[in-house]
Amino acid sequence: MKHVYEPGDWTGDPARDLGRPGAFPFTRGVYGSMYTERLWTMRQYAGFGTAEETNERFRRLLRGGQTGLSTAFDLPTQMGYDSDHPMAQGEVGRVGVAIDTVEDLGDLFREIPLSEVSTSMTINATAAVLLAMYVVVGEEQGVPPARLTGTVQNDVLKEYVARGTYIYPPQPSLRLIADIFRYVSSEKMSFNPISISGYHMREAGATAIQEVAFTLANAVEYVQVALAAGLDVDDFGPRLSFFFASHNDLFEEAAKFRAARRLWARIARERFGAGDAAARLRFHTQTGGVTLQAQQPLNNVVRVTLQGLAAVLGGTQSLHTNGYDEALALPTAESATLALRTQQIIGYESGVPRVVDPLAGSYYVEALTDEIERGARELIAEVDALGGAAAAIERGFYQEAIARSAWSIQQEQESGRQVVVGVNRFVDDEPPPILPAPDYTALETRQRERLAAVRARRDGGRVTAALEALAVAARGTSPLMPPILEAVRARATLGEISDTLRTTWGVYRPAV
């Protein structure tokens, strides 16, 4: 990195590398007007405890001006276990909302019209089940699938790398993802069937270049799987979405988003012959959870503001800003509101949205955008040489690279070469505050009682028949979404549906 950037430091071709906003290669944004006509979607991530408690938080955020919902699910839900399963003990409702049946999801969105609000669901291995539940809740609200809007994360490759909430081996998992693509396309849903996520790899220690490279390499894998399943890239490609982190280096993060957009446009055209709509990288951003500190937690307000600003300067389509107390506990209602107000101040008071891509032409930002694109392309070539994303992950290539980067960051912080205000410099003797936590034991008991009540009143024969039909489909090659939908309508539980697929496909055990 230089101290001064001058005209000769950017050697790109403005026509080839920048273009105009809304036009290939989309460096300057995916829409011509960007925020000058409409701000990004303010989509705060929320979910804890029972469906009723999360519904209350959702409605509070919507009353406060939030423009989209984003749902966090607890670990049992993510791993395909019902709340009364032994593996769920002690985890029900802790890191998100517990969803066992479509009745729970109905309660989660009670008094929230699904025809008017878009919903993002951070769910991966069980994404097909949660999407089916969402469709059925819509049906029972009188909203057909074509009028539902939102996103399922549905990105299992990064689970093998950075999160661990996978269930099935890669090949059946990828088949399930392609089936979701097919269903969303055939129903003409305004729904993103996947959110290809660099966020979690960045949180695990990836650099900005690794985040871009590994995310786009995973995207290539998903497109190839969908093409092999007989889908057309220009049918499903326009609904692909992406998810990135925003960390503290303002200009690096803004340049990262611009580079990712340009690189994906070129990859989509070069490799798949995609049209402009399928080459347009639309993305959600969340500020960096790993950057939040328990010491002097109010400093996190400033960190989150800078990170949110970087996302907006980089042209994000939707944004979650973290609560300042998330390094300590679930965000309080107060900190969640302040996080939303942070976005609103950027949107309505900063003046940044008045101009499309205000950083364009900066010698530094353009040089940095080129550097990130070049580094990411080189890393993608290494993934290609290993046989693609799935093969590279199986061999531990992503995991080893991210572990090395994480170790380097840790050394930088422990040595003080990378300053963390309030942690390794400008410290004080004040202990971190203690925040109250819910009574999770009582919460788990209530959730188990709800689940037992649903099981008691449903038609057991219909459930059994639906699960048997799903098992037959899983053993063959027919689409999986129709039998999953029928199982959900019969009030089969998330755990029962997941167990049916576990029995058929087995579970993934990493080799490294």
Give structural attributes.
9 strands; nine-stranded parallel sheet; TIM Barrel; alpha/beta
3D structure, described in words:
The protein has 512 residues and is of the alpha/beta class. It has a single domain (7-415), classed as Methylmalonyl-CoA mutase (TIM Barrel), CATH 3.20.20. It is built from 21 helices and nine strands. Strands 5-4-3-2-1-9-8-7-6 form a nine-stranded parallel sheet.
Radius of gyration: 22 Å
CATH architecture: Alpha-Beta Barrel
Beta-strand portion reads 5-15%
Run of helices and strands: HEHEHHEHEHHEEHHHEHHEHEHHHHHHHH
Large-scale geometry: globular
What is the domain total for the residues? 1
What is the end-to-end distance? 35 Å
Structural class label = alpha/beta
SS elements, strand count: 9
Amount of helix? 40-55%
Number of helices: 21
Order of strands in the sheet with the most strands? 5-4-3-2-1-9-8-7-6
Concise account of the structure shown:
51% of the residues lie in helices and 8% in strands.
What are the SSEs and their pairings?
Blueprint: H1 14-18, E1 41-46, H2 51-63, E2 68-72, H3 75-79, H4 102-108, E3 119-122, H5 127-141, E4 149-152, H6 157-163, H7 170-186, E5 190-192, E6 194-197, H8 199-203, H9 208-228, H10 233-236, E7 240-246, H11 250-272, H12 276-279, E8 283-287, H13 299-313, E9 318-320, H14 333-348, H15 363-385, H16 389-394, H17 397-415, H18 440-457, H19 460-475, H20 481-489, H21 494-505
Parallel strand pairs: 1-2, 1-9, 2-3, 3-4, 4-5, 6-7, 7-8, 8-9
Helix pairs in contact: 2-4, 4-5, 5-20, 9-11, 9-15, 11-13, 11-15, 13-14, 19-20, 19-21
